[in-house]
Specification:
- The chain is an alpha+beta fold.
- The chain has a 5-stranded mixed β-sheet with strand order 1-3-2-4-5, sandwiched between helices.
- It is globular, with a radius of gyration of 30 Å.
- 49% of the residues are buried.
């Protein structure tokens, strides 16, 4: 979202009106170009042009055009200046369907090429390699359209005419080759621009310089005299703004009631923010969305997308967007960044809801990426095309006779389940989708559930084999640092789901690939790599997402090398992109080539802005290094007015603000409860004075060493003689839950010890596990109240050597204790804190390993106000305070 135009020169109007009349409705010609777009590519072999020397698959698609293309660079601009010719700039990407149409119908047209080569210098850009150029000239298009009084918007292919200095003259998106139904064709438009340039170039340069000035204003960091507090009110506004875009019928948070049947995008940043706020929102708040409201929006949206045609129900993964409101017919390209974001949000939703559909979808995405988008060295490819044989979606859609010929007696079942008995709105075939939950379809067919599900899975496998024999869409196999980092982060997260440990190995392999192939000797990075060639300096987003990925690997593995990489990358990012005076991160580095503008924005695109990811990285790293938090706070404050004006467009910054507020609130509590001379409990500093004061009312009473708070297993019923430890139920271990205080203070912290007693001859995997494909022992504590588990400290592992194995296993045996903190928000008003303690583990002995299992216990602790009497209990479960060394302060 951009700020309003501020062009006030009347000298612009005459020129723009002339060009606008020529370009008006050009983009809408896409709607009538479908039949022409299905033409087969020209099979004649033409001489190669300059683009044949490039590595980008998109540029190579144009390497045999008769257009005399240049790649972006000084050679093209020098030619334009020396010959006093305007520039035609075409920007697209390899999986863009209409980019292919324009390549076939326009840039392969000899008549058009002859005219363009004579009157223009022609530049072709891959927007994925040069997002800086793309962003500037997409903004230029919007400025031009609004200044000329046109409607329309951005999109690709981007077609824009420039002065020899790079200032924008006029532009459009897709242009057909010739005039059609009163709409201007490409040759007509180019001819009009050429005539205007030749008749009055200075006037055209003047109007272009005005547009360029407005682009610079819109692209730079915003200045605001109004100060906006960094507070929860900004998050409430974001929740309300996003919720207003929720489609109550079909889900999704990009719905516009004024255009109810328009295209739909997943818009994962907004879903992620709502999911985060749903875990912290005040359920009783009257002036904002409640926790349940926000969660229901996300769950409904994720379920709708998973059931629609946006999802590839055979191979896994998602297409880029839906062309209709109901997620039925997608735009068929598959982008790596979409897979990464959707894998993250479905992984997160699976962990929160335990919904089998979300586990299934997350696993499918990860498997699809590992199977079809992973290079032998570990890097991830950028995208799969939307078309084959010049027909969009041909690879993915089905005809009834194809299903019948492939599945025989199960054809009717499959077609009913996957919507092929319903109305078909797509001209090239049926897009597979679930018009209703699978169980409902089986009931309609009177088919037993388990048997039906098995038949469906077998049918899907058979159809995937059939589909794999079709001509496949083009694979864009360039490796982009930013998008690879997104997928690394996503796989590190999905590896924490049951049975997904292999995802972590894929994440680590990809991370090492980036470090080996896209890192320079000085610690800086390249943007893109293909066929052993790395090109273009990395941008802000590359560094931001790469640092986030390294941090996520550290979280998943507890391996210090990844944390070190995250810190090093962030320091380099600050050095290259941060302006201390403006308190802002720019998209390009300080030593980047000079363009007509230098972008600095916190607005999300299809994924969270690199600016917001950077702030989140700084906050996370500040837990290990204090130097980063001030930069994060300064930049958040600097852009708070932007967040206030357009909260839904800044969902990534909303997530960063949530991190900052949570960290500040935690620090406030720590400051109130801690002193430098405090006692160390489970590695955490808790003030002796605070504990003494809380217990002073009971100072004449005997401290109790056994818990007065009982946690009971959810199932089976406990043995009355066993106290709070759960009955074994044939499990080789038992668990006890021991809080340090008999009450939880509102706004305070309470250490808790989880004691695990493991039977002789048995062991469980340590955390982190080694080898890392094993399921680590993991503690989770959840509450209906505003109570969260923090600072979990797992015990030191024991080493166990297995016969035939060269690497020792990391295990726990005997009796071990996990320590953590329970933190209660000051605003919590409940009388009791209801806690559910879940321990996930896998137990093994010399003969066998049991299935992964979990022990769940529930209990409740009274809540107390600050100053209320609170007594220490279970002190024998916690380390004794260390005596200070002689002479210490």
């Amino acid at each position: 979202m951009k700020t309003p135009l501020r062009i006030n020169s009347v000298s612009l109007s005459t020129v723009l009106l002339c060009l606008a009349a020529c370009l008006s409705s050009a983009a809408s010609a896409q709607d009538n170009a479908t039949s022409a777009s299905n033409q087969k590519p020209d099979q004649r072999v033409r001489p190669a042009n300059r683009l044949s020397r490039e590595s980008s698959p998109y540029l190579l698609l144009h390497a045999h055009n008769p257009v005399d293309w240049y790649a972006w660079g000084p050679e093209a601009f020098e030619k334009a200046r020396s010959e006093n010719k305007p520039i035609f700039l075409s920007i697209g990407y390899s999986s863009c369907y209409w980019c292919h149409v324009m390549e076939r119908l326009v840039f392969s047209n000899q008549e058009i090429a002859t005219f363009m080569n004579e009157h223009f210098v022609n530049i072709k850009v891959d927007r994925e390699e040069r997002p800086d150029v793309d962003d500037i000239y997409m903004t230029s298009l919007i400025v031009y359209q609004q200044a000329a009084g046109q409607g329309g918007g951005g999109g690709w292919p981007l077609s824009i005419f420039l002065t020899p200095d790079g200032n924008p003259i006029a532009g459009a998106t897709y242009l057909p080759p010739a005039d059609t139904d009163g709409r201007p064709g490409f040759l007509n438009v180019a001819n009009q621009v050429s005539k205007l340039w030749n008749s009055n170039p200075e006037r055209l340069k003047g109007s272009a310089s005005i547009i360029a000035a407005e682009v610079r204003r819109l692209s730079g960091p915003r200045f605001s005299v109004e100060e906006v507090d960094l507070s929860h009110s900004l998050l409430d506004a974001a929740a309300d703004d996003i919720s207003s875009r929720y489609d109550p019928v079909n889900g999704g948070v990009d719905w516009n009631p004024a255009r109810p049947d328009g295209p739909r995008f997943p818009n994962v940043p907004r879903l992620q923010l709502l999911l985060t706020l749903s875990q912290t929102a005040d359920e009783d708040a009257a002036d904002s969305k409640t926790r349940t409201d926000l969660r229901n929006i996300v769950i409904h949206s994720l379920r709708s997308m998973a059931m629609g045609g946006l999802r590839d129900h055979l191979a896994g993964g998602f297409h880029r967007y839906s062309t209709d409101r109901s997620w039925h017919v997608p735009h068929f390209e598959k982008m790596l960044y979409d897979q990464a974001q959707l894998l993250q949000v479905y992984t997160r939703a699976a962990g929160i809801t335990n919904d089998p559909l979300f586990f299934e979808v997350a696993g499918e995405i990860a498997d699809f990426v590992k199977r079809e988008l992973t290079l032998p060295g570990g890097g991830f490819c950028s995208a799969l095309d939307a078309e084959t044989n010049a027909i969009e979606g041909e690879y993915y859609v089905w005809q009834p006779q194809q299903i019948e010929g492939s599945l025989a007696e199960d054809a009717e079942l499959f077609m009913t389940v996957y919507g092929m008995k319903e109305e078909n709105p797509f001209e090239h075939g049926y897009v597979l989708r679930l018009p209703r939950p699978t169980q409902e379809s089986l009931s309609l067919l009177n088919i037993e559930q388990l048997s039906g599900l098995r038949r469906i899975e077998a049918a899907k496998s058979k159809l995937l084999e059939v589909r794999n024999k079709r001509q496949r869409p083009m694979l864009d196999d360039k490796v982009l640092t930013e998008w690879n980092a997104m997928m690394i982060q996503a796989l590190a997260q999905s590896s924490q789901l049951p049975g997904r440990q292999d995802d972590l190995e894929a994440a680590k392999n990809a991370a090492q690939f980036l470090l080996d192939h896209l890192r320079k000797d000085d610690g800086t990075f390249y943007r893109s790599w293909r066929n052993d060639t790395a090109v273009y300096d990395a941008y802000l987003d590359d560094y931001a997402y790469l640092a986030a990925a390294m941090g996520e690997l550290h979280q998943a593995t507890n391996d210090a090398q990844w944390l070190q990489h995250a810190s090093d990358i962030t320091r380099k990012q600050i050095e290259l992109f941060y302006d201390q005076k403006l308190k802002a991160f720019f998209y390009t580095s300080a030593n980047h080539e000079q363009l007509i503008a230098r972008t600095c924005t916190v607005y999300d695109s299809v994924y969270p802005s690199g600016f917001s990811v950077t702030v989140r990285n700084l906050l996370e790293l500040s837990k290990h290094n204090d130097e980063f938090k001030q930069i994060a706070s300064d930049t958040m404050g600097r852009f708070a007015p932007t967040m206030s004006e357009s909260p839904a467009a800044c969902a990534g910054m909303g997530l960063a603000l949530h991190d900052l507020l949570s960290m500040n609130e935690s620090a406030d509590v720590s400051a109130a409860n801690s002193r430098e001379s405090g006692t160390i409990l489970c590695g955490l500093k808790i003030s002796d004075e605070s504990i003494t004061n809380k217990a002073s009312t009971h100072s004449d009473e005997k401290d109790e060493s056994t818990a007065t708070i009982v946690f009971k297993p959810v199932s089976p019923e406990p043995n009355p003689s066993s106290g709070q430890a759960e009955e074994k139920r044939d499990r080789p271990l038992s668990v006890g839950v021991y809080p340090f205080f008999d009450k939880l203070e509102r706004g305070g912290k309470c250490p808790v010890a989880i004691e695990i007693t493991i039977d002789k001859e048995w062991h469980i995997n340590a955390n982190p596990s080694n080898p890392d494909f094993l399921i680590p022992t993991e503690l989770k504590i959840t509450s209906k109240q505003k109570i969260k588990l923090t600072r979990v400290k797992y015990p030191a592992h024991q080493l166990m050597t297995m016969e035939g194995e060269t690497e020792p296993y990391h295990v726990y045996g005997g009796k071990v204790i996990i320590y953590a903190l329970l933190e209660t928000e000051a605003s919590e008003t409940a009388e009791f804190g209801e806690l559910e303690v879940q321990l996930r583990y896998q137990a093994c002995n010399e003969m066998t390993c049991s299935q992964p299992d979990k022990i769940v216990q529930r209990g409740k602790l009274p809540l107390a106000n600050p100053g209320d009497p609170i007594r220490k209990i279970n002190e024998d479960k916690f380390p004794k305070p260390k005596e200070p060394a002689a002479g210490s302060q």
